[in-house]
Amino acid sequence: MGQLKQRSVSATEARLRSLVRKVASEDARLVAAARRAVRERLPTACEIVYEYRNWVVISFSPSEKGYEGIFAIRADARGVKLYFNQGKNLADPERVLEGSGRQARFIVLESVATLARPAIVRLLDQASASSAALFRQREKGRIVLRASGAKRKARSPSAPRGQARQSG
Quick one: 25 exposed, middle or buried, by C-beta within 10 A (0-12, 13-18, 19+)? Predict the structure, then answer.
């Protein structure tokens, strides 16, 4: 039984890597490094993967609900960003966080070395520490692939929610 579980995890991991290569082929190594940096701090986090037409988002969450995520990685052909979903509340004396949304802030990952910068390490540690209680589950985190909006069934504008468009 353990072997079967290992195979399914490997297949999911392979699918995630394939998605990243599809939308951000030049940055696949950078996405892997960012995932490792977050996993080191939150080993029990669920990685909720959202596939869109031209990008992939990986949310690191205490549950299978991506909106509860602490971090997110967004990868596309233009590059990779690491989001701090409660970034507005983090101490950022070096002012490395970008964005002006209600809560989330991000950094552009220019290279793997960006993740080793002391200011970035402090932000990663600070965000992880402030959320540690949410991630106290004993089991190892898992990867959950979610369908994107583009993959959902189309419905006609007049059809009620939940009903697919009639073909004819």
Answer: exposed
Q: Flag whether the pTM goes above 0.85.
A: no
Q: What is the mean pLDDT of residues 29-40?
A: 95
Res 168: pLDDT: 42
CB-CB contact of 143 with 35 (8 Å): no
In 98-164, the DSSP E strands lie at: 105-109, 143-146
Alpha-carbon gap, residue 46 to 59, rounded angstroms = 8
Domain ranges of the chain: 2-148
Residue linked to tokens 């991991």: 13
What does the alpha-carbon distance between residue 60 and residue 75 come to, in Å, rounded to a whole number?
A: 14
- Which has the closest alpha carbon to 166: 158, 69, 72, 128? 158
Identity (one letter) of the amino acid at 105?
R
Burial of 45 (0-12, 13-18, 19+ CB in 10 A): buried
Name the residue with higher pLDDT: 142 or 76: 76
Q: Tell me 77's DSSP state.
A: T
Q: What is the predicted pLDDT for the residue at 122?
A: 96
